TrEMBL record:
<feature type="domain" description="HAMP">
    <location>
        <begin position="203"/>
        <end position="255"/>
    </location>
</feature>
<feature type="transmembrane region" description="Helical">
    <location>
        <begin position="180"/>
        <end position="201"/>
    </location>
</feature>
<dbReference type="InterPro" id="IPR004358">
    <property type="entry name" value="Sig_transdc_His_kin-like_C"/>
</dbReference>
<keyword id="KW-0418">Kinase</keyword>
<keyword id="KW-0597">Phosphoprotein</keyword>
<dbReference type="InterPro" id="IPR005467">
    <property type="entry name" value="His_kinase_dom"/>
</dbReference>
<dbReference type="InterPro" id="IPR035965">
    <property type="entry name" value="PAS-like_dom_sf"/>
</dbReference>
<keyword id="KW-0472">Membrane</keyword>
<dbReference type="Pfam" id="PF00512">
    <property type="entry name" value="HisKA"/>
</dbReference>
<keyword id="KW-0808">Transferase</keyword>
<feature type="domain" description="Histidine kinase">
    <location>
        <begin position="378"/>
        <end position="596"/>
    </location>
</feature>
<protein>
    <recommendedName>
        <fullName>histidine kinase</fullName>
        <ecNumber>2.7.13.3</ecNumber>
    </recommendedName>
</protein>
<dbReference type="InterPro" id="IPR036890">
    <property type="entry name" value="HATPase_C_sf"/>
</dbReference>
<keyword id="KW-0902">Two-component regulatory system</keyword>
<dbReference type="InterPro" id="IPR003660">
    <property type="entry name" value="HAMP_dom"/>
</dbReference>
<dbReference type="InterPro" id="IPR050351">
    <property type="entry name" value="BphY/WalK/GraS-like"/>
</dbReference>
<dbReference type="InterPro" id="IPR036097">
    <property type="entry name" value="HisK_dim/P_sf"/>
</dbReference>
Length: 597
């Protein structure tokens, strides 16, 4: 049986039991009063009857009778008994002397029988006892009687006889028994009716209570959207209405909480920052996937297990430090940098109940800082080298080298070359700065990409021939068009072809092709030069990065050409890819948006 049904039945039985007990108590009290009243009435009736019997004998049997003549008295008593036979039915009449002994038995009483009762002794003493003799029995007779006595006086005023009449109380007992049986029968019927009515009436009370019980169980299971039927407008009905309002309000509140919880869970799950939450004793109670991935967590469940490898501070000390402000630590995990912010989180009483830890990946920021430092160092180095050369050659000229015209001309040529290098470097830096700040305006037009490619190849063919290189162009059969700035696209193509010619040895083969790639037009520039290692290939588009720094400077490179080319390609919606193998060669692929797609 279900818990709700058990509770409902228990309440119903209690109500029925209370109702039945109330009926039983009422029946018992009223029945007792009825029995007592019937017994009192019956006893009064018997008492009146025996009193009348005594009065009849006293007033009739001893008129005109010689009380000393016992035979005459006996005869007279027999006449009275016969005359008032109905009155003496069920009674025993005795004529007693002054010693309470039977003088004249009537109704077959045994001679010599004595009745020294309160009534008899009172009559002998010429008085009257207020209480009737009760529960009197005669020899050989199991019936009970009550007795009443009055004296008979002689002419001299003395008591001669006592008339003692016993009235049978069997009728009283029978009447009481019948009354009790009627009361018991009525009580049984009343109890049966009370049980039936109790179940009917209790149903009005237990039915809404059962509904409330079922609803409470459903609420515990999270079902709050089904209102309870209101059966009446009484107190339970009002309770049901308030219960429905509470369930509705609670459902709305839970929906809001669930919605907010889902939002937070989705945010925590998909946010790139890591979140860890620790309770007041340092046990981890919440984490998101980002934090697990960042700190490489497996089964760590406490603060010490998580941060012992990275921090030299206990959880309690950290909590004390965080009471006033947020604490920041930087940890390194497998060559990645993470900033870890610790802050307290509060309960509804604004009391600190633990720490929340926010983890941010600052590896790229650190790399950017390193790149900035390296960039500054590279710029300084690139500028210092020609400046040192110019200064040293100028000092030499000032010290007298001007007198030798050949040396002076050679020195001035070096100074001019270094000045050109600095000018080119500064121009490239300015161009990169403008590209970064979106300050360069591109003249976007519909252009013939194949014409620009062929023109650039022709301009570098003379340089390749000087190194006995084969510059092979696989001319397409159709025309390829794109939207872009002619000068900037030509700048990118020339930079790649120039690098292929510069860094390929004599006799190398450089192949250039253009083809349709659906959304893009791909320009491939492949050489069989010295190639680039995998480590260098990752950084080839970084500013000032050179695969062979000494050789690059000798050839006049600034280390910014590929960085500028990448910026220009991305601005045009394209991309630049490179594939290389040391000792085999390098292939650059330029992807331009295809206007015809």
């Amino acid at each position: 049986m279900k818990v709700g049904n058990t509770m409902s039945i228990s309440i119903r039985w209690r109500l029925v039991l209370m109702y039945v007990l109330m009926v039983v108590i009422v029946m018992m009290v009223s029945g007792t009063m009825i029995v007592l009243l019937v017994r009192s009435n019956e006893m009064e009736s018997v008492q009146e009857s025996i009193q009348l019997a005594v009065e009849a004998i006293k007033t009739t049997a001893f008129e005109d009778v010689d009380i000393d003549d016992i035979e005459d008295v006996k005869l007279k008593l027999s006449d009275v008994y016969e005359k008032y036979a109905a009155l003496y039915k069920g009674k025993r009449v005795f004529l007693l002397d002054r010693t309470s002994r039977v003088v004249l038995p009537l109704s077959d009483a045994a001679k010599g029988l004595s009745f020294p009762t309160h009534q008899v002794m009172g009559a002998i003493e010429d008085g009257q006892h207020e209480t009737y003799d009760k529960n009197r029995r005669l020899p050989g007779d199991d019936r009970k009687y009550i007795g009443y006595a009055e004296n008979i006086k002689g002419s001299d005023g003395r008591v001669v006889y006592v008339v003692y009449v016993l009235g049978e109380t069997t009728s009283v007992t029978n009447s009481i028994e019948k009354t009790i049986m009627v009361i018991i029968s009525a009580a049984a019927v009343a109890i049966l009716i009370a049980i039936v009515l109790g179940f009917i009436f209790s149903d009005f009370l237990t039915k809404p209570i059962t509904a409330l019980t079922v609803k409470a169980r459903d609420m515990a299971r999270g079902q709050l959207d089904k209102p309870i039927k209101v059966y009446a407008n009484d107190e339970i009905g009002q309770l049901t209405k308030n219960f429905n309002r509470m369930a509705k309000s609670l459902n709305e509140t839970l929906n809001e909480i669930t919605s907010e919880k889902n939002k937070l869970e989705i945010v925590f799950k998909h946010m790139t920052d890591g979140i860890l939450v620790f309770d007041k004793i340092g046990v981890m109670i919440h984490s998101n996937p980002a934090s697990i991935d960042m700190l490489k967590l497996d089964r760590q469940i406490s603060f010490q297990e998580v941060f012992n490898p990275y921090l030299e501070v206990s959880y309690n000390d950290l909590k004390n430090m965080v009471q006033e402000e947020t604490i920041l630590h930087v940890v390194i995990v497998e060559n990645r940098y993470y900033s870890v912010y610790f802050a307290k989180f509060l309960d509804q009483h604004n009391e600190a109940v633990g720490l929340i830890c926010v983890i941010q990946d600052i590896t790229e920021h650190k790399k950017l800082e390193e790149m900035q430092k390296e960039f500054v160092a590279n710029v300084s180095h690139e500028l210092r080298t020609p400046l040192t050369t110019i200064k040293s050659y100028t000092e030499t000229l000032l010290e007298g080298a001007l007198e030798d015209s050949d040396i002076a001309v050679r020195f001035l040529e070096v100074i001019n070359h270094e000045s050109d290098r600095m000018t080119a470097l500064v121009q490239d830096l300015l161009e990169l700065s403008k590209l970064d700040n979106k300050q360069i305006k591109f003249a976007m037009n519909d252009i013939n990409l194949e014409n620009i490619l062929e023109d650039s190849i022709n301009k570098y063919r003379i340089h390749s021939e000087k190194k006995n290189q084969s510059l092979i162009y696989h001319k397409p059969n159709n025309t390829f068009r794109t939207i872009g700035d002619v000068n900037r696209i030509e700048q990118v193509i020339k930079n790649i072809i120039s690098n292929a010619v510069k860094y390929s040895p004599e006799g190398a083969i450089i192949e250039i092709s253009i083809e349709d790639q659906n959304k893009y037009v791909k320009v491939s520039i492949a050489d069989n030069g010295m190639g680039i290692s995998k480590d260098d290939l990752k950084r080839i588009f970084e500013r000032f990065y050179r695969v062979d720094k000494a050789r690059s400077r000798e050839m006049g490179g600034t280390g910014l050409g590929l960085a500028i080319a990448k910026e220009i390609m991305e601005y045009h919606g394209g991309k630049i890819l490179v594939d290389s193998e040391v000792g085999v060669g390098t292939t650059f692929e330029l992807y331009f948006l295809n206007k015809q797609s």
